[in-house]
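INFO  loader      accepted 1 record
INFO  loader      residues=136
INFO  predictor   begin
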Amino acid sequence: MIEAILDTGPLVGALDRDDQWHAWAAEQFAAIQTPALTCEAVISEACFLLRTVPGARDKIFALVERGLVRVVPVLPGESPAVRALLARYGERMDYADACLVRLAELHRDRPVVTTDANDFRIYRRFGKQTLELIVP
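INFO  predictor   done
INFO  writer      dumping C-alpha cells
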C-alpha cells in the first residue's frame, strides 16, 4: 500500500472503462492507501471529463464522502506558492498541476499518481527536486 497524491488522469481512468488507462488506473487504486490526497481542481477536471460517463461523477463524490479521496484545500493558504509555480512553468503548467506540485512539497513522502509523465517529469519541488511519480 502506498500513500499518494492523485492527479486527474488516474481518477478518470479508474472510473471510465473505455479510458486508455483504465486497467492501469484500477490497479493503482487497489494499491493506494486511503485516503489519496488531491485538490479541488482535479475534482473539477475529472467531473468535466467524465460528464458523459453514466454515474461516474456520482462515484467521484462517493470516493470523497467515503474518505477514500481527501480533497486538500490549497487556496488561499498556498496561493503565493501556487502562483510562483505557475509563473515558473508558464503555459506548460495548469492550475491543477500547480496545486498537485504544491501538495507534493507539503507531503514529501507521497508520490504523485499521474498519467501525465511528460509534464510531471519536468516539474520540480522547491525549484530543484524531482517528484516521485507513479506513471504508466
